[in-house]
Amino acid sequence: MKLRLALPLFASLFLALTTTPVQAQSDEAKYWGKDVPKSADHPFIKRFAGSWLTGYSSAEWDITKFPTSNVLGKDKKFQDIVTLEGKQTRIVYLAPRGKMPVEVFRNYQQALQSAGVKVRFVCEMQCTALYWAWKDMNEPNKGMQWAEGSIYTPTSSRYSHSSGLTPDKGMMLVGSIKRGDQETHVLLYTSVAAFDSTGLSLTYIHVAEPKPMPTGQVEVDATALQNGLQEEGKVTLKGLFFDTGKATIKEESKAQLDEMAKLMQAQPNRKFFIVGHTDNVGNFEANQTLSLQRAQAVVSALTAAPYRINANRLVAKGNANLAPVASNAEETGRARNRRVELVEQ
C-alpha cells in the first residue's frame, strides 16, 4: 500500500474490519469515513489509503515551533528548535484496522523522501521522550476539530478521538522542503491509536508553510502614541515588524515609523528610549543582543532620511526577557513579550 503526494483526493474510503460484535460493527460502519466537516488532505501529502480524517486544524497565519534535532536537555525539552510563522495545517488520521504503526509510518516516510523532503531527524524506536517533549512544546491537540463518533475496539469499547494520540509504538519524523526561497516544514508522528485494543494506528501530520503576517490591521497614529506616553510614560510599538530572530525592520513597519517621527517632529525637545524586549526562548545573552539590535535598528531608521530625527534625542536599549508583560508559558504570552517600546526619558 503506497501513499501519493500532491494528487487528487481519494474518491472513496474503505475499512478492513476483523470480526466484531454486531453493535460495534454497526456503530463503526456508521461513523467511519465521515471526515471532519470542512476538512481536506493537505495538497502536499495525501492520506494512507483507506484512512479516516478524524482531527483537523488550519490557520492562514499562526506561529509554531518545530524541533530540528532529537536532542533533549536535562529539562527533557528539545534543545534545537525553529520558530515558524505562516500557514499551519494539522491533520489526524486513523488507518484501516490491522495496519500497524510501522507500516503506516514507513509509507509516509518513503512518500515524503520521494517528494524531496530533507529529513532533519527520524525516530522509529524508543521515541517516548520525544513524544512528551513535542506534546509539552506544541500541545498538538489544542484547537483541533474532531470527527463525529469514537475510536472503536473489536469488543465494542470506545475512546474519544482526542485521546487517540499516544506514545505507544510512536515514531516521529521532522523534515523540510525548499520551494523557491521558501522552506516548508513537515512533522509526522504515528502511533497506536488510544490503546492496543483498538487495533488501529493514528497518524498526526503538521505542515508549516512560511507566509508573511497580514499587516495594516492596527492603527498607530501619533495621537495614540502621545496618549500612551501620558498615561504610562511608555507605549508598545505594535506596528513594528521583524523577521524571526533578526533585527532588520520589515517594509510594513513604515506606517509606525511615520507616526513616531510625526510625534517627535511636533515636540522637538522631548527625548526617548527605544527599548527592545524578547520572550524567554533561547539563550539570554543572544536575546539581549537581539533586543538591543532591534532597538538600534529603529533608532537608525528614525535618524536617517526621510525622518532625520536628531540622534541625541534617542537612546537604544535591549532588555531581553527581563520585563515580560505576560507569562512565557504559552505562545500567546510570548508573542506579547516580543516587542519594542517607546519610553520617555
UniProtKB/TrEMBL annotation:
<protein>
    <submittedName>
        <fullName>OmpA family protein</fullName>
    </submittedName>
</protein>
<dbReference type="InterPro" id="IPR050330">
    <property type="entry name" value="Bact_OuterMem_StrucFunc"/>
</dbReference>
<dbReference type="InterPro" id="IPR006664">
    <property type="entry name" value="OMP_bac"/>
</dbReference>
<dbReference type="Pfam" id="PF00691">
    <property type="entry name" value="OmpA"/>
</dbReference>
<keyword id="KW-0732">Signal</keyword>
<dbReference type="GO" id="GO:0009279">
    <property type="term" value="C:cell outer membrane"/>
</dbReference>
<keyword id="KW-0998">Cell outer membrane</keyword>
<feature type="signal peptide">
    <location>
        <begin position="1"/>
        <end position="24"/>
    </location>
</feature>
<dbReference type="InterPro" id="IPR006665">
    <property type="entry name" value="OmpA-like"/>
</dbReference>
<keyword id="KW-0472">Membrane</keyword>
<feature type="domain" description="OmpA-like">
    <location>
        <begin position="229"/>
        <end position="345"/>
    </location>
</feature>
<dbReference type="InterPro" id="IPR036737">
    <property type="entry name" value="OmpA-like_sf"/>
</dbReference>
